[in-house]
From TrEMBL:
Lineage summary: Bacteria, Pseudomonadati, Pseudomonadota, Gammaproteobacteria, Pseudomonadales
Subunit structure: Homodimer.
Keyword DNA-binding: no
Entry-linked SUPFAM superfamilies: Pentein
PANTHER family found in the cross-reference section: N-SUCCINYLARGININE DIHYDROLASE (PTHR30420)
Record-given protein name: N-succinylarginine dihydrolase
GO biological process assignments: L-arginine catabolic process to L-glutamate; L-arginine catabolic process to succinate
């Protein structure tokens, strides 16, 4: 039976703006308050989805969230009609309105952690929505995320869904941005690699001093238990606290893996030799030949990796066994990074080609190609059970580009978020989108 790694890319929402909400994310903070272009952002993301589809990869789409989140504002004491809630928040607490308008759900690498059926005790694909409790604007995402994933992967014969972990600091969970799966074939048992920034209960683990470590060891362990993963099929590794303090807020900013290959920076992990040895041993026991490509700090500094998002790339397996690396335009603009990538593809190793995409709108807010996608390994029978409305086709691409052009604004500034009309525009667009993607009622305004 054939198996696939399907990339479900997040569709950028109509309220895409540069609120500078993510402390520890250098790009998010440095571009705060600039005018955004939601229409361009959504179209750039759709172009990447279409390009991968055209290259023969199975590609899906994951819907954005309703914003502004009026219910969140109501829970913070703002009352009246929806329009009055927005106007009061704009007058008295603009930062809260900005947070409630965030389109950060576009980075669906943070939506959930996914374990394929070959790894789980009950032989189903397991999803755990991430609580994202480190940041208020992201912590409000998981209820809708769970409903959207439930509408996409609905058949309980094949799919199991878990609620987000308790929304407390000890179980901070940022989803697949800190999770990678290695395997010989997507349909065979693999090894799931969980990277954490700190331990919540054991002070012996070092922690960053400047920026928060968003993923805890305890959260990663809990997800592994929920998914029914065996000890032989997991490796837990601590991210280097020093790189977190340099702006590496998730592991996918400093490492990326796929198949039997880990592509990582020299400073990505603590106890690197031990981590690589454990990955090699557990994968070898499952018939796989683990490989790693370590990028030396004297060729690419951590600062260059963060600014270019070299590791926030998509590492894709091609039919001939080689790997394709999808990187943002910022990698080509950085001389040191681009020089390294040229040497990487010329050395005859597993990465044979690099393709560059313009994702400026996402990049300026702190998310690259890998942030925009949630990877789901599926067997043929499981893929057939996925809601077909969310699988990218030429027809769906055309429909979605027309939908974006119809509903999205060309420019959005902070002051525009106070306009109650923006909420109506968002709800009108999303109501139509749920029909396009055949999701049913997944948004609060459709349910309440």
């Amino acid at each position: 039976m054939k198996s696939f790694e399907v990339n479900f890319d997040g569709l950028v929402g109509p309220t895409h703006n540069y609120g500078g909400l993510s402390f520890g994310n250098v790009a998010s903070q440095s571009n705060s308050q600039q005018a955004s272009n939601p229409k361009e952002a959504a179209l750039q993301g759709l172009e990447k989805m279409k390009a991968l589809m055209d290259m023969g990869f199975v590609q899906g789409v994951l819907a954005p969230q309703e914003r502004p989140d009026v219910a969140a504002l109501r829970s913070l004491g703002f009352g009246g009609t929806d329009a009055q809630v927005i106007q009061k928040a704009a007058k008295d607490a603009m930062p809260l309105l900005v947070a409630s308008c965030s389109a950060s759900s576009m980075w669906v690498a943070n939506a959930a952690t996914v374990s394929p059926s070959a790894d789980t005790a009950d032989g189903r694909v397991h999803f755990t929505a991430a609580n994202l409790n480190c940041k208020f604007h992201r912590s409000i995402e998981h209820p809708t995320t769970s409903r959207v994933l439930g509408a996409m992967f609905a058949d309980p014969q094949y799919f199991a869904h878990h609620a987000a972990l308790p929304a407390v600091a000890q179980f901070g969970d940022e989803g697949a941005a800190n999770h990678t799966r290695f395997c010989r074939d997507y349909g065979e048992a693999g090894v799931e690699f969980f990277v954490y920034g700190r331990s919540a209960f054991d002070s012996r683990y070092p922690a960053p001093q400047k920026y928060p470590a968003r993923q805890t060891l305890e959260a990663s362990q809990a997800v592994a238990r929920l998914h029914g993963l065996s000890e032989a099929g997991v490796v837990f590794a601590q991210q280097n606290p020093a790189v977190i303090d340099q702006g590496v807020f998730h592991n996918d900013v400093i490492a990326v893996g796929n198949g039997e290959l880990l592509f990582h920076h020299e400073d990505a992990f603590l106890n690197t030799d031990q981590v690589l040895a454990e990955l090699h041993g557990k994968l070898q026991a499952r018939g796989a030949q683990f490989q790693s490509i370590c990028v030396p700090r004297d060729q690419v500094a951590v600062e260059d990796a963060v600014r270019s998002y070299l590791f926030n790339s998509q590492l894709l397996s091609r039919a001939d066994g080689s790997m394709l690396l999808i990187v943002p335009e910022e990698c080509r603009s950085n001389p040191r990074v681009w020089q390294y990538l040229q040497s990487l593809t010329a050395c005859g190793g597993p990465v044979r080609e690099v393709k560059v995409f313009d994702l400026k709108q996402s990049m300026q807010n702190g998310g690259g190609p890998a942030c925009l996608r949630l990877r789901v390994a599926l067997k043929e029978t499981e893929l057939a059970a996925v809601n077909p409305g969310v699988i990218m086709t030429p027809a769906l691409y055309g429909t979605l580009t027309r939908w974006v052009s119809k509903h999205y604004r060309d420019a959005l500034r902070e002051s525009d978020l106070a306009d109650p009309q923006l909420l109506l525009e968002c709800r009108t667009a999303l109501d139509e989108l749920t029909q396009i993607l055949k999701l049913g009622a997944v948004y609060p305004f459709q349910i309440n």
